[in-house]
User: Fold these one by one.
Assistant:
Number 1:
Amino acid sequence: MATIDINKEIIWDPKFETGIQRIDLEHKIFLELFNSYRIAIIQKKNQFELNKIINVIEKYAEFHFTSEEAFMAQVNYPGIENHQHLHFDLLEKLNIAKHKVDNSIEFLQFAYEWFAHHTTHEDRSISTFVNKNNIQTNYQLNI
């Protein structure tokens, strides 16, 4: 996986695209949060301020995972249990990482690598299932 350049904005890569509008929009918010954390590192924010952003990332992950799992249930995705397990594991790892990682760049690298792998592999399998089975979804953002 590519190493994060702390001085460059983390941008959306088309390889993250699932084709499921709400999931893709929620994924883009992760990148916004990662960039907030990256900027806080550049600005040399103290650990308390960095941890506040990590807590927001954690809470957002909980929200997103619940949302994504609701979609999987809606379309009867057969890999939902395994996917839920992966989500639970990440939340555990985020909690451990925020207490163990001394280097804030290391935390950002860990979170981004997990995101990039998860979206291009596990989340892509949801999209493949939906497309293969011609499932019509109206899973839109309700703003």
Note: The chain has one domain: 19-132.
Number 2:
Amino acid sequence: MNSEFKISTLKGIYTKKEPVSFCLSGRKFIPGQTDIRLKISYLDECLEEICVEKVSAQVSVTLSTSQYPQKADGFGCSCTFYKNGRLCGQASTAFNFINTEKQLIRYGFLSDFAPEITNEEDSLNFLAEFHITHVQFYDWAYRPHQYEGPASVYTDTMGKVIDSECLKRKITGCQKRNMKTLGYGAVYAAGAEYQNMHPDLSLCDMEGTPYNLIDRFFIMDIQRDSPWLNCILTQYRFALERAGFDGIHMDTYGFPKRAFTQREGTLQLVYLEDDFPDLINEVRNVLGKKAVLIFNNVGNWPVAATGAAPQDGIYVEVWSPYHTYSHIRQIILGAAVFDKPVILAAYLAPFRLEKNKGSRRALNAALILHSVITSLGATHLLAGENGAVLTQGYYNDYSLLTDSEREHLKEYYDFQVRYLDIFYDTTLSEISETHTSGENQEYCFSGCKTSADGKAGTVWTIVRENKKRKVIVLINLTSQTDNEWNSGKNDTDPVNQLKIQIPADGRIFRAFKASPDIKQGEAQHVQARQIVNARE
């Protein structure tokens, strides 16, 4: 990895009314003694170049956005460093602008709010460097049924110490970086003290035993006529009006899916998938249109019921039996029908279980999974607090990235933003299984073994198209022995011979290729040769 010179964004996303700000760093970067040239590009087109002499560690540039292609978004920024007129090095990043017509959620997390926290700015800058637009504040409340603590410093149900002043600084820091902040709040969880006072509000099994998680979080009845609903709505209002959040991450546990209420001694069966949409509607009505709402569909359930509810994205926490790359594809395509941003929380255990000294298996797993999720038009909740990644459902037990892992993963996040007008073009249809394999001959691939569903030992071909654009994504799985997304992955051997034949629906105006692993993600033009009435 090249760490002699670095460039990164200082905000997760920008408005067109403000300069775009960058942080410059690296082992050989000397503030005040280095000149830079910034090249701003859109897809394969250079839009403008800007030179800055004797640059400091932070630089802000005003861009000629009025001259950019209309509705274009997702820009590359290549930075060339000079000292005394001599080329010293290169680095790159990407950025995009807030667009109310093109909603996108790049989700990150924060979970450390203790009084002794000293690296607040480092964590916030990491989120900005990775272009995060929305941040989940995990386990920030005093109790699941009472968010406000008894003092400015308090201890939560799991024993974590929280300083409300640290919490406020992180909320404000995110918002200054144009990131939306969401307070974690389980929709039906109450502490033991609340459940003991209101046992009739618990959800129970058929024997009348209350459902709970680790004997600390008791699951309450969320039906419209349940007093619990008013309790949780009061906490959500506190999160926005008093704590200062922009929205709520409405968590669930994935169980129970059916349960019994026990009112006046009578058991009544309830189906939670029927109650969740009503709950989301009620939260929206209470918090208003501007509040950001994300509901957790644990294990892809119950997306069919909640997808149309008034939330800002379709968020799926991925668990077994969804364990293969083809399952990831299935989840994303199923959620995409609701025409909202799709976010997957797919926690990568290899960073915790397989991260042996010198091994790249965890990083390889992250790069492949990120490629899969991005190529199918979704985003991935993975990175956050303290330069770390999530490996399990309890976010406080995150795993730190090494400097090398961080740099490499950043290249993929940059690539995602640089080409977001391709990856997140909602007019594209995913046609891989109907146009590219078996008896389907519209798109032909030769020179190596390919698959349309992410099989190990193949190049995975993902094809999306509309009437004006064809997008072909190639994900190299040829060195892999399994197709499980949550296992460490081998280093990838290059594929040197791959021929692609596509249907000639009309004149090709331009064709280019790009990879986060080649030339810092810059687009390279491709020469296409037309074949008449033949398949080679």
Note: The first strand starts at residue 6 and ends at 9.
Number 3:
Amino acid sequence: PSRSGNQVSEYISSTFLDKQQEVEIPPAKDKDKEKERRKRPMSQISGVRKLPHGSSLAAAAIPRFGVRTDQEGLLAKELEDTNKWGLNVFKVAEYSGNRPLTVIMYSIFQERDLMKTFRIPVDTFITYMLTLEDHYHADVAYHNSIHAADVAQSTHVLLSTPALEAVFTDLEIMAAIFASAIHDVDHPGVSNQFLINTNSELALMYNDASVLENHHLAVGFKLLQEENCDIFQ
């Protein structure tokens, strides 16, 4: 038999195992408190904010393009390109009061008749889109609501190509466009690697795996639980 193996076993036993009796076990109540304290930051999805859109909209009061604007004519002109490559999303943002995502998603869902197909109340759809758009950061140079609107519109055009005409169901089309709208929500403007290297709360929450991608999805779905936001109810 190996002498070194026995020595290692004896060392572990004498150093650690025999001293277990000396360890003071905290009362169950204190342990429960500590567990609750540790769980608290992870029980909530960071970035989700309470916003006032929920009860402020009525279906009869929805503006033509989903948002109020004093440049409706110019906005209408830009949205004529909703079904084409090259829509000027920056002009849409300018003429919609910086609501490009809400306006373009509303236009796409109307164009495809998705609200009627899936019985989505118009006020609920607009409330969700306004809430979603508010969770994109305007001060982030690239991953903002203009980018989300651009991706959603590009996805809509791509899915309209003749080669894909009979490939996807209405549900799959809606899922793809919805995914495009939420795909970068609450993006902080830094990379996954930065979040991991700085031991950020998000990196800890998602165990360093696809940190931002998991967060965008979580926020997008969490917002469906806000007042009058569940478009899939």
Note: The radius of gyration is 25 Å.
Number 4:
Amino acid sequence: MAATRQIGINGFGRIGRLVLRIATARDDIDVVAVNDPFIDAKYMAYMLKYDSTHGVFTGTINVIDDSTSKINGKQIKVESKRNPEEIPWGYHGAEYVVESSGVFTTLDKASAHLKAGAKKVVILAPSADAPMFVVGVNEKSYKSNMDVVDDTSNEEAIEINMLRRSIANQMERDYNMPEIQ
């Protein structure tokens, strides 16, 4: 079995809650910390349990104190920092940070998570300058030295890739056709 990935989530809106739900259903991902300047552990638990977008969370949620929750038996620290450099990702053991606040979407701003101890940052909002990857389109061009990337689901990239493949296939058919006599 592969090693468990330790992740942190910055921003606990619709996307951050969805990331937490998905992660708690997997054995290979542990969310060790969630940061949102507008919540404490009790409000985080409420937002997760009664999500107006994703429905009622059916797992177990226990609030330990103002800064600690247990979701499906796994402890999660809750931070309320505005500045990503102040979030103790390294202290909590978060190797990867999912940036879902919608605020820190450039390479420069998202890199603040690296200064706080994260090793990699994945931006889940459109970024003006971070390399963007779409599974099925260009994920093979990812390089391990890329510390901040954008994984925004971009429907246009998928459509453009499908069009590109269609044109390439048509050209291949046109130029490799057997001679007609």
Note: Strands lie at 5-10, 29-35, 50-51, 55-56, 61-65, 68-71, 74-79, 96-99, 120-123, 148-150.
